[in-house]
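Per your request, structure below.
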């Protein structure tokens, strides 16, 4: 039977929150007791307890009351400095007016005054100001200066008159601090005291008063009291003794206060000999003045000296108001080049078409700087009508100006003008024609393909190359290869004259689509040699090996010897470039080319392609040409390049071929290259380079060090394993690094297996040097010979394993673990001695 809950237990449960609050408060009071007795270097825990309580007090008013009462007890002189400092810092967060009487006495202590002010400054209300003002009279100068600063920071109106009496204090530091505090307070009453003092002060004191007055004026402007601010700004600006930096600040203040006389002041400063004043005027014109204000200023520049007018024009914003055009037009009519240039540069950012005639007129200026400024202005001039207006001007100007206008359209990216620019792409003037063709490479789109084909068909041979580049640019930019090819083929059927069909075939070759192959292969056999040549050129650079048989047919059977030679060269070039062909297929095609009894020039080209094929058969074919003096250098270079690419797997064969090169009469540089590769081969003789790889193998949630002792398929008898060839690469001074990270596409917490065969003539002992990243386990002929379960990079010192090899074939198996980052191994076979 269940027993009923007792009354005491029920009350305990109901009162748990209150019990918890009481416990927390008790802990806080206990922490305060500890701090009252705290000595420097003691246990910091009470500080942490109270800091946490202060944070909680933001949502707990009763806790805050306890804290404030206790903090006052920590301010007593008997408490250590560290604790009193802590109390002031915390009171800065939560103190109210009730703590003022406890904090004010601390102002008399030199070490505590600033800490007390730190707390007092953050207490809202005038009571703090009253207490601070009252304390001023009885404080030493050091603390008094700090109190003055605090009153300024609090912008206390109650402090204005007391601070005013301190402006003539015998201590310059006190007087200076009072001046700056009045500036920070920034009220009309404070400004009047500063103005009076400024009128009566000696020059040394005026600098501080001026800076305080400017600060005060800024506060007044921010509070909408521009009248009081203007009085200060006028006083500062009109003083001949004020430094230019302060006068320039006053000038800007007058402008911000919208004082009517500020316009004349800006114009006056614009022609000032003082650079600071001049720069401020320029800043106001460029960054502060509205379009209407700039127009009003412009009307005041007519009587300015030339240099000041130039300054004004250069100060105009990037987009001058339309109202400024009359002034700019007048400046452009002036004979002074600097004034003209400044006006053109001002027009450069205009968005008003009314600027267009002014800019276009100066594109042909004799002054290079003005010409460039007008050009830049037309490029930047916004609005859809600008490009049309430029286009309309081209027929009316000299060829040299036509070139400039076409270039401007190009830089404006005026795509809408491409169709009209086609007429200039066949201009009789070479410079105009070249500029138009260049612009069309940037601007033309598929809409101009048909007229562009007509232009191509009727062009002179010298124009074909630039026109072809336009087609290629359109195709790349718009992925319009298919559309261009179709249009070209449609036009090709209607062109009777062979000479006009040639450029179409050339562009079809540039497009490189299969749809064009029938037209090109048909042209190979055309009676017109020009068409055949065009087709040969196009097919020689084809994107795949499709035209090989057609080229071979022409190389074997064409009636013209020149076409047979050109076809063979195109065939060789296509074999070289065809990525779809394997090295063995390329080599077979090159054998076919050699069977056609090519000249030495074509043999050299064939050897150049053979040099890129990293196979033993390619090396053998290159070696067979070493005894032919006419192609000996090319054959030697091919041998060297192939040997360099295969010597890691076939060092003996590569070495034999390179020694054969050294026995020929080739040039010293070629012999030096052969010796260098032989040196590399000698260096790697001790490295094992012919490897296979299997893996990676991993188990979920198992680390690489745990995987080290798990047997995977390559360790298990009669278990199928997929082995792949393992490439080697250079790592630092090691020429045969097995980069598992690259071969197995990365990964972490896994293992891989490496396998190689070591063949020896007789039984012998040897030593393995094994470098691994990370751990490694090794078997020789199925028997374990080494294990090192570690995490490491490739180190300078390898693991050394002495082994016994039996005559014939020996199988070495490695298991390499991967933690993270690089993953691989290096193995050398050396004499144990």
């Amino acid at each position: 039977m269940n027993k009923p809950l007792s009354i005491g237990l029920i009350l305990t449960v109901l009162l748990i929150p209150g019990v918890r609050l009481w416990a927390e408060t008790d802990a806080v009071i206990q922490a305060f007791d500890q701090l009252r007795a705290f000595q420097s270097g003691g246990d910091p825990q009470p500080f942490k307890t109270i800091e946490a309580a202060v944070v909680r007090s933001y949502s707990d008013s009763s806790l805050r009351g306890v804290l404030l009462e206790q903090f006052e007890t920590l301010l007593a002189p008997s408490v250590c400095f560290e604790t009193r400092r802590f109390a002031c810092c915390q009171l800065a967060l939560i103190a109210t007016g009730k703590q003022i009487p406890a904090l004010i006495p601390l102002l008399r202590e030199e070490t505590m005054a600033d800490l007390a002010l730190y707390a007092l400054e953050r207490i809202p209300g005038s009571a703090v100001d009253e207490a601070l003002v009252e304390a001023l009279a009885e404080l030493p100068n050091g603390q008094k200066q700090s109190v003055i600063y605090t009153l300024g920071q609090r912008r206390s109106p109650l402090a204005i008159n007391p601070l005013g009496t301190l402006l003539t204090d015998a201590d310059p530091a006190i007087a200076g601090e009072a001046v700056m505090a009045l500036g920070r307070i920034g009220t009309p009453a404070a400004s009047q005291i500063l103005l009076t003092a400024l009128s009566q002060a000696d020059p040394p004191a005026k600098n501080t008063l001026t800076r305080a007055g400017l600060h005060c004026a800024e506060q007044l402007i921010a509070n909408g009291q521009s009248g009081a601010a203007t009085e200060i700004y006028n006083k500062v600006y009109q003083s001949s003794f004020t430094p230019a930096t302060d006068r320039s600040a006053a000038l800007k203040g007058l402008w911000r206060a919208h004082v009517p006389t500020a316009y004349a002041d800006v114009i006056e400063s614009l022609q000032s000999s003082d650079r600071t004043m001049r720069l401020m005027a320029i800043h106001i014109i460029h960054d502060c003045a509205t379009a209407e204000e700039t127009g009003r200023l412009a009307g005041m520049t007519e009587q300015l000296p030339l240099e000041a007018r130039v300054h004004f024009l250069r100060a105009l914003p990037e987009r001058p108001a339309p109202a400024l055009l009359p002034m700019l037009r007048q400046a452009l009519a002036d004979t002074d080049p600097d004034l003209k240039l400044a006006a053109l540069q001002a027009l450069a950012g205009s968005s008003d078409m009314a600027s267009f005639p002014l800019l276009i007129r100066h594109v042909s200026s004799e002054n290079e700087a003005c010409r460039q400024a007008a050009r830049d202005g037309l490029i930047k001039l916004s609005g859809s009508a600008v490009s049309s207006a430029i286009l309309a001007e081209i027929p009316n100007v000299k060829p040299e100006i036509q070139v400039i206008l076409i270039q401007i359209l190009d830089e404006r990216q005026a795509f809408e003008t491409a169709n009209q620019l086609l007429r200039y792409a066949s201009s009789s003037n070479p410079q105009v024609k070249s500029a138009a063709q260049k612009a069309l490479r940037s601007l033309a789109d598929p809409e101009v393909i048909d007229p562009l084909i007509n232009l191509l068909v009727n062009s002179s041979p010298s124009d074909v190359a630039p026109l072809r580049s336009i087609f290629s640019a359109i195709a790349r930019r718009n992925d319009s290869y298919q559309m261009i090819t179709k249009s070209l083929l449609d036009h090709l059927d209607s062109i009777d004259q062979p000479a006009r069909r040639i450029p179409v075939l050339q562009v079809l070759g540039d497009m490189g689509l299969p749809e064009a192959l029938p037209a090109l292969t048909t042209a190979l056999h055309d009676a017109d040699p020009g068409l055949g040549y065009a087709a040969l050129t196009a097919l020689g650079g084809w994107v795949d090996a499709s035209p090989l048989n057609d080229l071979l047919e022409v190389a074997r059977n064409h009636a013209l010897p020149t076409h047979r030679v050109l076809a063979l060269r195109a065939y060789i070039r296509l074999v070289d470039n065809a990525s779809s062909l394997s090295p063995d297929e390329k080599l077979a095609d090159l054998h076919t080319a050699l069977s056609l009894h090519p000249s030495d020039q074509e043999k050299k080209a064939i050897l150049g392609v053979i040099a890129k094929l990293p196979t033993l058969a390619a090396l053998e074919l290159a070696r067979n040409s070493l005894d032919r003096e006419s192609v000996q250098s090319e054959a030697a270079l091919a041998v060297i390049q192939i040997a360099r690419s295969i010597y890691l797997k076939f060092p003996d064969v590569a070495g034999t071929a390179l020694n054969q090169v050294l026995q020929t009469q080739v040039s010293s540089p070629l012999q030096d290259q052969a010796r260098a590769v032989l040196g590399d081969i000698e260096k790697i003789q001790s490295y094992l380079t012919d490897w296979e790889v299997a893996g990676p193998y991993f188990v979920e949630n198992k680390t690489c060090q745990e995987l080290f002792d798990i047997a995977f398929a390559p360790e298990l008898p009669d278990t199928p394993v997929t082995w792949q060839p393992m490439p080697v690469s250079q790592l630092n001074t090691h020429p045969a690094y097995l980069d598992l990270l690259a071969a197995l596409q990365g990964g972490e917490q896994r293992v891989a297996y490496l396998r190689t065969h070591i063949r020896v003539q007789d039984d012998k002992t040897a030593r393995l040097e094994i470098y691994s990243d990370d751990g490694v386990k090794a078997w020789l002929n199925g028997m374990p010979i080494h294990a090192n379960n570690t995490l490491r990079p490739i180190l300078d010192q390898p693991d050394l394993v002495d082994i016994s090899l039996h005559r014939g074939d020996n199988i070495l198996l490695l298991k390499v673990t991967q933690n993270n980052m690089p993953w691989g191994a290096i193995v050398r076979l050396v004499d144990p001695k």
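The longest strand covers residues 750-760.

Regards,
D.
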